[in-house]
Amino acid sequence: MRAGLAVQVCSSSVLVGCFLLPAPGFAQTTAARDPGVRPGPAAAGGPLPFLSRTYVSYFNAGRADFVEVETVEDGLGPTMNLDSCGGCHSQPAIGGTSPALNPPVSVNPQVVFAGKMGNAVPSFLSSDGPIREARFVRNANGTPDGGVHSLFVVPGCGLRQEDFATAVANRNVIFRIPTPLFGAGLIEQIPDSAILANLNADGTRKRSFGIGGRANRVRVGTITGVANTNGNDGTISRFGWKAQNQSLLLFSGEAYNVEMGISNELFSSERNQTAACQRAPIPNDATNPDAGSPLEAFSAVEKFTFFMRFLAPPTPSTDTPGGAQSIANGRTLFSSSGCALCHTPTLNTGNAAVPALRNKAANLYSDLAVHNMGPGLADGVTQGQAGPQEFRTAPLWGLGQRIFFLHDGRTKDLLEAIQAHASGSSSSASEANSVIARFNQLSNTQKQDMLNFLRSL
Asked: Region 310-335: what's the mean pLDDT?
């Protein structure tokens, strides 16, 4: 049989899909490999198409605040992870993940910031590594922690950096890298009903793969006779590595407070209230009703939200890497091997107030649900109802221009990231085990096609 031909295998009893296996005797001479960060200009970073001129002005104002570097006099600190939103979200354009790719090596802005502040660089940060947020799994008394422990402190007011060396030695610290924000406004406008309907769809096939999944929500009573499915307002959370935040406004306020130590109208208390370390005489960020224009009156948190909400999704490549045929083959294999059962290619927005967000297709490649990913990816932290082994299905749009993968940025290698989805057995098994087993049965050519497809997104 000619090299490159393959046999299509389908289930005859239960329709669980078809996948391709290499033909008998097929010689696989070239191992599949991650093509790496897709070259060329950033395929993201601009505003949504068809925004009105007014909405574009809000987007631009939000972007300007998003990239602004904060100072201690602005309210930065006294504990923080970095001094700007743009520092954490810069690859391949403002709004992405980090650090930005600057050949021949990307430079981690946290390492630069540590030097500027006279702080030590924790062992888990490196100049060519990802930006990281650190969380402790347990408190000193053994009770669950899970909260963010700031990496850096304002110098000269008596604060000391956390003892990360001991936490690392005791395996009590886990890491998170920034999630890309492209297309976030579309994600925000996907109705809860669409998320739940998608979770319930194709149930027979999902069960055959061992796939479950659930929305991150908390049942705590009733609101106007309807089951309250979230601890705050009865809705499904969808942002963050464990889908712990419900809205972009909440995400903005929390990040400003947690990552930069800047209090705001959503999070009005300083994380560290040491009196000698409070350099800003008034609350750090607030609405200014006396401003000269309505746009100037908005707080920074609201402007961040405008930027994220109106940020367009990434534009995939039709032919890079590997060519159009390879990408098309990879897309088919992505579905037939079961990847698309969690990484849903498209969900649709509802009747949004902003026309550019209304009834649009969001090609995010995620079901926005949390899934048990097994002990290999477990971080020991619970957020909402997402437990230590559960993570939100990461949206894959824009993956082609990302540098680091998985929640902690442990690898630059997309193939390694795929393999890490499988771990555990029995009750601790990752829901992706069967899917990864099917991926492993593909020929090297087919694996390469799938990698090329993913890097085209």
From this structure: 98
SS (H, E, C) the chain: CCCCCEEEEECCCCCCCEEEEECCCCCCCCCCCCCCCCCCCCCCCCECCCCCHHHHHHHHHHHHHHHCCCCHHHCCCCEECCCCHHHHCCECCCCCECCCCCCCCCCCHHHHHHHHHCCCCCCCCCCCCCCCEEEECECCCCCECCCECCCEECCCCCCCCCCHHHHHHCCCEEEECCCCCCCHHHHHCCCHHHHHHHHHCCHHHHHHHCCCCECECCCCCEECCEECCCCCCCCCECECCCCCECCHHHHHHHHHHHHHCCCCCCCCCCCCCCHHHCCCCCCCCCCCCCCCCHHHHCCHHHHHHHHHHCECCCCCCCCCCCCHHHHHHHHHHHHHCCHHHCCCCCEECCCCCCHHHCCCEECCCCCCCEEECCCCCCCCCCECCECCCEEECCCCCCHHHCCCECCCCCECCHHHHHHCCCCCCHHHCCCCHHHHHHHHHCCHHHHHHHHHHHHHC
Q: Which residue in 35, 96, 43 sits closest to 327, CA to CA?
A: 35
Per-residue burial over 213-241, b if 16 or more Cβ lie within 10 Å, else e, is: bbbbbeeeeeeeeeebbbeeebbbbbbbb
Distance CA 420, CA 432 (A): 10
* All residues at 6 or more sequence positions from 393 whose CB lies less than 8 Å from its CB, including other chains: 213, 342, 343, 344, 366, 367, 368, 369, 370, 371
Model confidence over 165-208: pLDDT tens digits? 999 999 999 999 999 999 999 999 999 999 999 999 999 999 99
Q: How far apart are CA 175 and CA 407, in angstroms?
A: 7
Q: Which residues contact 201 (CB under 8 A, 6 or more apart)?
A: none
Does the reported pTM lie above 0.85? yes
Alpha-carbon distance 20 to 403, whole Å?
29
pLDDT in tens, 38-49: 999 999 999 999
411 phi/psi in degrees, rounded to 5:
-145, 150
Query: Token pair of 314, please?
Result: 């990434």
What pLDDT is recorded for position 103? 64
